[in-house]
Amino acid sequence: MTTNQIMFAKSHEWVTNNGDGTATIGISHHAQQLLGDVVYVELPEIGDTITAGEAFSLVESVKAASDIYAPISGVILAVNDALEDAPELVNESPLEAAWLVKISIKDSTIFNELLDEDLYQSSIQE
After folding, report:
1. Tens digits of per-residue pLDDT, 26-41?
2. What is the domain count for the chain?
3. What is the pTM of this model?
4. Which of 31, 50, 62, 125 could form a disulfide with 70 if both were Cys (CB 3.0 to 4.6 A apart)?
């Protein structure tokens, strides 16, 4: 995996390795389409530990509430406070402005278990 390459979990979260021992996590374009208009994003606290495969956040839309699962494990270093006042960013810019958290990477080998964009797109077409 190259630095800053977006990788995806089968549960529709994305993650980038920032190249400095940190990673940024958000939800995929496909996930925000499935959710519909996002009205609220519940973010974890800085300092919280998240574990790959476990829920760490919640996104509510006009249709449903959906848990967001950690694609990798680590400690929360930053949260995207802009989402508190503008949850619609998840719909408008899911892969850029609407990142959810930045974390310290506990084990970078987990990136090998994630899907690159081509594999992810193939998986959602099935």
Report:
1. 999 999 999 999 999 9
2. 1
3. 0.95
4. 50
